[in-house]
Structures are given as structure tokens and as C-alpha cells.
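Q: My collaborator sent me two sequences in one message, no labels, and asked for predicted structures for both. Can we handle them in order? The first one she listed is below.
A: Yes, handling them in the order given. First sequence, followed by its C-alpha cells:
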Amino acid sequence: MQLRLFKVFLFLLSGIFYSQSKQQPMKDCICYTNADSTLSKPYYNPAHSLVIKSKKPKVFSLSGGRVSKIIKDNNLYTIIIQSNNLFYIYSNLAFIPKKIKMDKYIRKNKWLGNGSLLKNNYSIELQIYNKTNILSDIKKYVKCTEAPQSR
């Protein structure tokens, strides 16, 4: 009985560490902080936006949560996923699957769509808010290779 409880404890503990580990929103991605942008949207603060680029188009959820908003602006989408007090904003998606719907729960590592193609790379922009405060330390949630300063 004690061995069984110990195994359950280890399983739960490993799940906690796995759920809090950094994730890649795109496979083999590079990232840099967006210092400036011409975009002007109420939910978008370019100074704390992480630009993520990859040769592969698929974008994956960093956290499980509820899809609180889907925004279409011209031909690009933005998906906002709420996970407890955190809001993950994935911008510049060129495509999202029909399965992604408002108020639907999304699992961690779930395919959210494809990044937009620009100069032989697919890219998205990511922001994370804690309630209404944007997080400036977004890289602690994201696993990506830091891009060199020149873009």
C-alpha cells in the first residue's frame, strides 16, 4: 500500500514539474523581444511582445486553458487563451483549425494554427498577461533560442 501511494505521489509530482516547464510554441524556434511595432491595438503592447520564428509553421499552446477570444484582423488571427490568472495572446496566425472555438478548453501543446510566412520563416508574436498586467519576463515561460540582436 505504501509503495502504491509513493508511486502516485511521484506521478503527481512529475506532472507538476512537467506542467511548469518551458514549452516551445513552435518547433526549433528562435525568438527576440519586439522593441517597436507599427501595430496599434488595445490588447497589444509591442514593448513586451516576443517575436517567435521557425521554419515550421505549426504553433502550439504553452498552457492549457479556455479560449477567451479569437480575433480576425485582415487575414491574420489572434487567439487569447486564459489559464487561471494568465492570458496568453498568440498574434499573427495565418490559419487556425475549425476545432479552435470560443470558450473551448485547449490542452497544453495543442496545435493552435500556423504562423504567418514572412521572409522564408513562419512567425507569431506572443504576449502574456497576469490579469491586466503584461508580463515583461515572458521568456521564463517560453523555450526558444535567443536570436542575435540584428534581425
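Q: And the one she listed second?
A: Here it is, processed independently of the first:
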Amino acid sequence: MQSFNEIEEQLGYFIHNNSSIEALEDPYAYQHGVTVSWSKLQPNQAHMQKHVLADYLSLTALCSQILVNVKSGHYQEFVRSTEIVLSHIRQNTLLPDSTLEDVFNEIRREMDVQRGIMAYTYS
């Protein structure tokens, strides 16, 4: 659980201090509810992104292996949840009308799901 907390803290810093979003100009995107996208990261921001991504991937790979080993019925939910967080770390998706705080709140919710699955697995 401590590792999840540490990575969540890193993600909060990364999202709030090293990321930005910008309005889309594409009218097609507006028709589908997508109004913002991630701004291109500067080299130092991309370095931080890679570091946080590597830490998160290491943690979730270990957790996934544990869930597989114990034949958890929550494995697919865990995978779905990690995919959402990964999309925000990688910043490779378009976003609905969102702010950086909305994005971080979604990350926090998904990490709570992941912590809950792992806590349930060990209870």
C-alpha cells in the first residue's frame, strides 16, 4: 500500500506541475465530447513521465502477478483500472471536457480501486 501512496504522490506532482492540456480546434472532436488534449511535454517533463511510468509499471506488474497466482476474480478489474491510469501517465488519449484536477481525481479513484483489490486479496 505504501508503494501505491508514493506513486500517487509522484503522479500528483507530475500532473499538476509538469503537464498541461489545451483546447482542441477540431470540430469533429467536439461532436464526440472531446474538447481538450494533452500538451506536448518538454524534455525534462518527459524524463519525469518516464520515471513515474516505470515505477507504476513495476508495481502493477507485481500486483498483477499476485492476482494471477491467487486466481483472483478481480484481476480483470485491476487490469482495466491500471489501463486508465496508464493512459493518463502516457498522455496519449484525448480527454472530455477536463481539467488537470479532474484527471488527477480520476487517477486517485482508480488507484483506490487498485489498493482495494490488493487489500481484499490479502484479507
